[in-house]
Amino acid sequence: MFSEKVVNNLSKSSWIRAMFEEGAKLAQKYGAENVYDFSLGNPYAEPPEEVIESLKKHVLSDEKGLHRYMNNAGYQEVRERIAKSLQNESGIELSAANIVMTVGAAGGLNVTLKALLNPEDEVIVFAPYFVEYNFYADNHGGKTVVLPPDTSTFEPDLSALEERITKKTKVLIINTPNNPTGVIYTEKTLKEIAKIIERKEKEYDTTIFVISDQPYSEIRYDEVKLPSILSIFNNAIVVNSFSKSLGLAGERIGYIAASSRIKNIDVLMNALSFCNRTLGFVNAPGLFQKVVGDALTAKVDVEAYKKRRDFLYENLTRIGFECVKPQGAFYLFPKALIDDDVEFVKRAMKYNLLLVPGSGFGCPGYFRISYCVKFDRIKNSIPAFEKLAKEFK
Amino acid sequence: MFSEKVVNNLSKSSWIRAMFEEGAKLAQKYGAENVYDFSLGNPYAEPPEEVIESLKKHVLSDEKGLHRYMNNAGYQEVRERIAKSLQNESGIELSAANIVMTVGAAGGLNVTLKALLNPEDEVIVFAPYFVEYNFYADNHGGKTVVLPPDTSTFEPDLSALEERITKKTKVLIINTPNNPTGVIYTEKTLKEIAKIIERKEKEYDTTIFVISDQPYSEIRYDEVKLPSILSIFNNAIVVNSFSKSLGLAGERIGYIAASSRIKNIDVLMNALSFCNRTLGFVNAPGLFQKVVGDALTAKVDVEAYKKRRDFLYENLTRIGFECVKPQGAFYLFPKALIDDDVEFVKRAMKYNLLLVPGSGFGCPGYFRISYCVKFDRIKNSIPAFEKLAKEFK
């Protein structure tokens, strides 16, 4: 009766959302304060003052036409500000013409893949990765090729990349700071990737686009810098969102920035606007375009996230968990205490701990903790982690 | 390099948007007040007071978590209010579980088609129609079947419908009040359609869904009622938006309401939520969900639109244009003064009149006037229409 593919996918659907819903049930049963829900990347943090002030300014003004359609790509002045900021960061010349405002990064990724993919084109991702990429690629006729994780560092496996690029490879998606590991890929690694891609583009006479999905770009610790994707890759497309950096996840606001170094960039920008329109986004929400334009240099309290990372990392390693120390995002990705991560996560639920199995990120044997929650939840969860660890000793 | 299909579609792309952009150029050249841009359905009207008050209330409150993710289907309390209102209107029992909040009607249509269509499934539409439906169906593997217009009344052609339903027909899209004609399909016509569909469902042992795309449902004149789609059709799915009724086109807020009479409705609702998420919408913009929930009974000043309709209709018929008098929406769809509507629209541009050819709606020989503009523009345009008509006498 309905789409068979969609109905089949319902059962394979998001672990993260499944845990989120399980959490709601447990919270009802035991009280929210007794459930340690670490399942969803739904920041507890309120938007920074600049966002709130901008919102008030626009809503209280008698600005006419604030809620009308604008160009499908978004407000010119907001796109100009974003272009200027990316240009300063990357040294690559960019203007408003290189930017399309989008319904978050998820919207931006769908629009970009639709504009790029021909049937059976391959989209390479490094595990562990955000598995929704599979659906996004499939929506537009693409096939996801998942490269196995290097669990020693969670950096991309370069030899795997070199081996798996084919004539059909159209896109490489990178996600740094990474969800679920919190790892920031080094400049050296990214430059190696660029070399491999350039070599393969020559070998096959193809163009391979690097899509950088970087909603966590502003959530970095220990003064680690984010290497500039736009300067490292020739065919770079940055997809970003203000969900995490400005605490606006529910408002669905982000952008696509495509490098001026891409050949026929005008055609690509038209294609992106067209896809933004015809996939049904039409344009990114208008009021919040203006707000992020005003608050472009603001960000949520990263120190507060760092405090959470440090506390959790110290306690979990003390308890005996193995874990790469994250440099960004708000996730920890420790090794499960048994091989079967799904079973491990189920056993954790006994202690009201809601975790997401690594299998949900193409990386079995690990689990994700999303620590964008109130500090008390983290502090109070430590005895539960201790009991859980004891069970496997 | 890019998606071939998308690049090919760029050239066939929206007439409406093309005219909109042409209008911007002419406005720069001659001054906005001297260009009679009737191309886009971008309401001039500011949202009603209830919307502005609700926006202020939420933005000035210290409501925590206002901008966070919520359930992919949207806020429970907003969905409940919409369900209750539709239940009152239709007599069909509905709850929050029947509603998914969406990124406008364009988003809602893409989500619905994705959830329903299997490869090569057919989507029937009555010309004249909003040609973006072609892209929406194609996005999800469907094929649009366009039934020719009955230009005497612009009501659906029932015998054409009866003939063209096949085993592959999955969806009929109806759009009433209609864009571009402003016609409201009568209850009698809709009930005839329902009979034909039920007969064909039995004949082929299939299920055919009626999607009612009804963003103009609240813009009606002369006390004409809108027949209730949910009560007339068994497999009814209403897709609506607040773009026109609350003047919120740029904010991208609407909903899907699927009838509780649909078999396996639970599976369908899960599929709709899943598609909302994986197509990259994730959820409808959060703040505006709350706002439309608060302002559900409000609407823009319909009398102001009626004044425009009456003035334009009277003047154009006086000048000699043939036109069905619209009962809703904010469009007129007169007959062009030559067969070639594209040529006619080009000639109109000489008088700074921006119109959209009927070919852009699958109905050559006609043209669309979008009168959701300031009254002065309409008033001042009449001499231009007179000169244009003179040219063809």
Task: Walk me through what this model shows.
Chains A, B: GO terms for molecular function: pyridoxal phosphate binding; transaminase activity. Chains A, B: This is Aminotransferase. Chains A, B: Its cofactor is pyridoxal 5'-phosphate. Chains A, B: Its EC number is 2.6.1.-. The structure is a homodimer of 393-residue chains. The first copy, chain A, has 14 helices and twelve strands. The first copy, chain A, has 393 residues and is of the alpha/beta class. The first copy, chain A, has two domains: 4-47 and 300-391, Aspartate Aminotransferase, domain 1; 64-294, Type I PLP-dependent aspartate aminotransferase-like (Major domain) (Aspartate Aminotransferase, domain 2). In chain A, the strands form three sheets. The first copy, chain A, has a seven-stranded mixed sheet, sandwiched between helices. Chain A has a three-stranded antiparallel sheet with strand order 9-12-11. A two-stranded parallel ribbon of chain A has the order 1-10. The radius of gyration of chain A is 21 Å and the shape is globular.
